[in-house]
């Protein structure tokens, strides 16, 4: 493949293995597409898939996955820690090789229109595809979640970009857009007090006056009985992972709480982790382009 485009759809199902396996089968069924990774979290009740492919294949697989999710995930019965508004919550397209954000914006609009035309699921365009500045931030788009969305859609400024002012009765509403790569980065705390995670997340995220390229919420991992600061790092070079990690460590000490681990959801650019290694090892004058062996081998 000369041109490579990534798609990272998020589905509101992380517990039903039959549905998750069905999504995997659909992801593997389209030519010109490779499923690189998929992960599911029972507490979040959410699955994240990472696919790459050519322009035609990535559009088809995105649509087929949304279709399968709409037929097999009932949002009226969904409960989980992660905010969500649809069976397929979000479908981002990301330029990887010989492609551009502008091309991904056009792809997102084509897929969004087809989803609405054929599945009758309303669509918000978000991030770089946003029709107005207020829809760039996914958190603002998703505010109200599935339960509050019928009322939200009646507000003057919240008409869907595609579709009528009403949600699909079981599949809800979906956000589709284009963006640059982000890192889904979560930090686990040795406390069962969700209010502590919420307070720290507010300090971390840009909307709370924190780091410009960080989004964060506090969630409770019921299966482990611990609180978590769950983050999306939308520009890992502008705000590196170690910076939020160390800030969380510092703020947690205020409450007598420690970090007990962290996790990356889905795939991440290698540089995001190498930047952390450079920081913690205090490597001087490190040149990522020249000193990483794999960069030379992979070209």
Automatic annotation (TrEMBL):
In terms of Pfam families, this protein maps to: FTCD, FTCD_N
| Gene from which the chain derives | ftcD
Where this protein primarily resides, as one coarse class?
cytoplasm
- Which cellular compartments is it found in? Cytoplasm
Tell me its EC number(s), please. 2.1.2.5
One GO MF term, please?
folic acid binding
NCBIfam families, per the entry: FtcD
Highest taxon in the source lineage: Bacteria
Q: Which UniProt keywords apply?
A: Cytoplasm, Folate-binding, Histidine metabolism, Transferase
Major enzyme class: transferase
Q: PANTHER family this protein is in?
A: FORMIMINOTRANSFERASE-CYCLODEAMINASE
What GO terms fall under cellular component here?
cytoplasm
Q: Its Gene Ontology biological processes?
A: L-histidine catabolic process to glutamate and formamide; L-histidine catabolic process to glutamate and formate
Pathway the protein contributes to: Amino-acid degradation; L-histidine degradation into L-glutamate; L-glutamate from N-formimidoyl-L-glutamate (transferase route): step 1/1
Formiminotransferase N-terminal subdomain domain: residues covered: 3-180
Protein name (Swiss-Prot/TrEMBL): glutamate formimidoyltransferase
What taxonomic classification does the UniProt entry list for its organism?
Bacteria, Bacillati, Bacillota, Bacilli, Lactobacillales
Q: Which residues form the Formiminotransferase C-terminal subdomain domain?
A: 181-296
């Amino acid at each position: 493949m000369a041109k490579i485009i990534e798609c990272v759809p998020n589905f509101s199902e992380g517990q039903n293995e039959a549905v998750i396996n069905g999504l995997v089968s659909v992801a593997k069924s389209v030519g010109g597409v490779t499923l690189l990774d998929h992960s599911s979290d029972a507490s979040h009740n959410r699955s994240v898939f990472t696919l790459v492919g050519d322009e035609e294949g990535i559009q088809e697989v995105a649509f087929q996955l949304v279709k399968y999710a709409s037929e097999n995930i009932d949002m009226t019965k969904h409960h989980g820690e992660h905010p969500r508004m649809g069976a397929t919550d979000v479908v981002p397209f990301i330029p990887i090789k010989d492609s551009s954000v502008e091309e991904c914006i056009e792809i997102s609009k084509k897929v969004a229109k087809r989803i609405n035309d054929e599945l009758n699921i309303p669509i918000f365009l978000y991030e770089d595809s946003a029709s107005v500045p207020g829809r760039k931030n996914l958190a603002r788009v998703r505010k109200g979640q599935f339960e509050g969305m019928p009322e939200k859609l009646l507000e003057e400024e919240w008409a869907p970009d595609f579709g009528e002012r009403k949600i699909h009765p079981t599949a809800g509403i979906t956000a589709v857009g284009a963006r640059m790569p982000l890192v889904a980065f979560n930090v686990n705390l040795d406390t069962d007090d969700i209010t502590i995670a919420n307070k720290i997340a507010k300090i971390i995220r840009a909307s709370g006056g924190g780091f410009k390229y960080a989004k964060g919420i506090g969630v409770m991992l019921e299966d482990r009985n611990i609180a978590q600061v769950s983050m999306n790092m939308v520009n890992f070079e502008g705000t590196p992972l170690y910076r939020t990690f160390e800030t969380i460590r510092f703020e947690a000490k205020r409450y007598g709480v420690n970090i007990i681990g962290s996790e990356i959801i889905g795939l991440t650019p290698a540089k995001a982790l190498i930047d952390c290694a450079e920081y913690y090892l205090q490597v001087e004058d490190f040149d990522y382009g020249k000193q990483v062996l794999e960069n030379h081998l992979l070209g």
